[in-house]
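Example is below:
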Amino acid sequence: MKSISGILKSACVLLILVALGAGVFIWSGVYNIGADDPHMRTTYALLETLRDRSIGIRASKLTVPDLSDPAKALQGAGNYNAMCVGCHLAPGMVESELSKGLYPAPPNLSKYPVELAQAFWVIKHGIKASGMPAWGKSMEDAYIWNMAAFLQKLPTLDAKQYQAMVANSGGHSHGGGESGHEHEHEASTDSEDTHDAHEGAHSHETGEAVEHNGSDSDHHHDDAAMQAKESIANAQTAEAHGHGDSSKDQAMTTHTHADGTVESHPVKPEVETDDGHDHKH
């Protein structure tokens, strides 16, 4: 019993010393956290194993939906091009400034296939301290599965095929936080495009109709501006010379008679002083 007790005490002392040593190591700042200074091989291997096992265990519990419809991968192409290509690249694309600067280096997914369930899990949940965000915070699962489906096709595409899929996809749309603003903007754009299309069609039918309408619009603006200027000038002239319709311009006063009737009378104008102007006409 004494030998077992001694072993336990020794183990406890050893653990305490290791914890103290780790604390001193961390607090000293001796470890270079810079992304341009790689981990030691042992450290990198441990972290890589930890990452792969963590993802594998969790992805194995997922149920993969039916992604056989080509439209799903096609829709995922637009989101991949908008959200992922800067780090994970595309066929015919050289390393970007972002992909060069990240550590650990993000895999080139145009050459590196990813299993469906694992692709979904990583896109949704991200990876700590790697630069890989958790897109599930702003992206619905159906759209994430579409991206995972696209990743199965990506390594088989050349540059032209990739661009064709992106061009024919739905673009950057994934039912996340951007949707309301994006749809509102698209609706506004569609409205403007529809208006322009109607005008374009009208111009084909009537020849110079659009040009004429534009001219009319300009005339309306000019007429309105001229009328406003004339109104201001007339008001200033009337004020200076006492002109204008007395029933509209002259101030009124209201009083009530003893029998209850109400009458309004113009306010008696103040006596004008001689300001050197001739007010008689």
Summary: The domain at 75-171 is CATH 1.10.760.10 (Cytochrome Bc1 Complex; Chain D, domain 2). Confidence is low (pLDDT under 50) at residues 179-222, 237-249.
